[in-house]
Amino acid sequence: MKKVYFNNISSWKNGILIIPSIICFLIGTFELFSEPNTVWNKRISILGTILMMLFFARMSYGKYYVGWNKVGITIRIKSFLGKSFNFKDVKSTDLQNGILSVVKKNGKKIELDLSEIEENDVIRITEILSENTIANNV
């Protein structure tokens, strides 16, 4: 059974990573330090770039990834791109025989094979979907 990496994009852990990266990147770009300290500008800019790379690399780590915020979700199971959709567009969800079916309001149906995923991770995926789409389905 495969383990899924879950990433709540709007969590404080991601904020701790992205906010300093943006600050470092901007400080390094606009050269806050004067002429004799241009080395520090370069170092701060590089630090900001590395932190941004870490933030986005976590999203592309492995074949099994679920990332979500209050607007939408990205589910990547055995693929690089995965499936992304907004919670407000979900009409219904159904899990049968390890296949998760998501029906969107426009009639499109997204099917994801979760048969190789650990049971706890399948439960968590369905909980995330139900928590964020239940108000939209009413």
Would you mind describing this structure in some detail?
- The protein has 138 residues and is an alpha+beta fold.
- It has helices at residues 12-29, 38-59, 119-137; strands at 5-8, 64-68, 72-77, 83-86, 90-96, 99-104, 109-113.
- The protein starts with a strand and ends with a helix.
Instruction: Tell me the major beta sheet.
Output: 4 strands, mixed
Which strand order do you get reading across the main beta sheet?
Answer: 1-2-3-4
Helix and strand composition category: alpha+beta
Percent in strands:
25-35%
Number of helices: 3
Count of distinct strands: 7
Please tell me the overall pLDDT.
86
Q: What is the ordering of alpha helices and beta strands?
A: EHHEEEEEEH
- What is the distance, rounded to the nearest whole angstrom, between the alpha carbons of the first and last residues? 35 Å
Indicate the radius of gyration in whole angstroms.
Answer: 19 Å
Shape: elongated
Helix content: 40-55%
* Residue windows where pLDDT falls under 50 for at least 5 positions: none
Task: Give keywords.
3 helices, three-stranded antiparallel β-sheet, alpha+beta
Layout of helices and strands:
Blueprint: E1 5-8, H1 12-29, H2 38-59, E2 64-68, E3 72-77, E4 83-86, E5 90-96, E6 99-104, E7 109-113, H3 119-137
Parallel strand pairs: 1-2
Antiparallel strand pairs: 2-3, 3-4, 5-6, 6-7
Helix pairs in contact: 1-2
Compact overview of the structure:
With 138 residues, this protein is of the alpha+beta class. It has helices at residues 12-29, 38-59, 119-137, and strands at residues 5-8, 64-68, 72-77, 83-86, 90-96, 99-104, 109-113.
